[in-house]
Amino acid sequence: GINGILADEMGLGKTLQTISLLGYLHEFRGITGPHMVVAPKSTLGNWMNEIKRFCPVLRAVKFLGNPEERKYIREELLVAGKFDVCVTSFEMAIKEKATLRRFSWRYIIIDEAHRIKNENSLLSKTMRLYKTNYRLLITGTPLQVITWMHAFHFNVCL
Questions:
Q1: Is residue 36 part of a domain?
Q2: InterPro entries from the entry (predicted)?
Q3: Quick check: is 35 in a domain?
Q4: Residue 153 covered by a domain
Q5: Which one of 30, 87, 114, 143 is most buried, counting C-beta atoms within 10 A?
Q6: CB-CB contact of 24 with 32 (8 Å)
Q7: Quick check: is 87 in a domain?
């Protein structure tokens, strides 16, 4: 695995490329995760559908919902060995950091990564708290949006 930025323009299949990476790690390297995808809430359904469609071997859990739903997910689904990929929103990454920080993630994938361009934002600070082997930043905006210095905080190859 490596750190990186996937910065193709919109519509060129960044989601599928990312799922393909996770599928490759699972099938050919025996690396089942856990991985975490952090994305806009409006895209979580698409992430789940694409994982099921293109890489059904990956056990994906969508971590979202009201407090009761999240409690069920925490206790029954988001358990080490029961899932490969946790798909969650930026808001949940902040609100549920106590739960999500229990894991040592293999990959943390940040979709729409231009949202962490402000190093001092709560989201950016929270994402740096998570333990992970590797990070993949996904954005459809030009690379200039993510400053060199900030990328180095995430140990990402440009």
A1: yes
A2: Helicase_ATP-bd, P-loop_NTPase, SNF2-like_sf, SNF2_N
A3: yes
A4: no
A5: 87
A6: no
A7: yes
CA 9 from centre of chain: 19
Pick from 82, 28, 30: nearest CA to 60: 82
**Burial (0-12, 13-18, 19+ Cβ within 10 Å), 133:** middle
- Provide the terminal-to-terminal Cα distance of the chain, rounded to the nearest Å: 15
Contact, 91 vs 121, CB < 8 A?
no
Range of the domain at 84: 4-139
Mark out the alpha helices in 96-139 (DSSP H runs).
97-100, 122-129
* Span 143-155, pLDDT tens digits: 555 554 455 455 5
Q: Are 139 and 112 in contact (CB under 8 A)?
A: yes
Tally of structural domains, the chain? 1
Say whether the peptide bond before residue 40 is cis (omega within 30 degrees of 0): no
Q: Give the model's confidence band at 4: pLDDT under 50 very low, under 70 low, under 90 confident, else very high.
A: confident
Whole-number Å distance between alpha carbons of 23 and 55:
6
Structure tokens at 137: 């930043």
CA nearest neighbour of 81 among 146, 13, 46, 33: 33
| Calpha distance 94→26 (Å, rounded) | 27
Question: Above 50 in pLDDT, residue 39?
Answer: yes
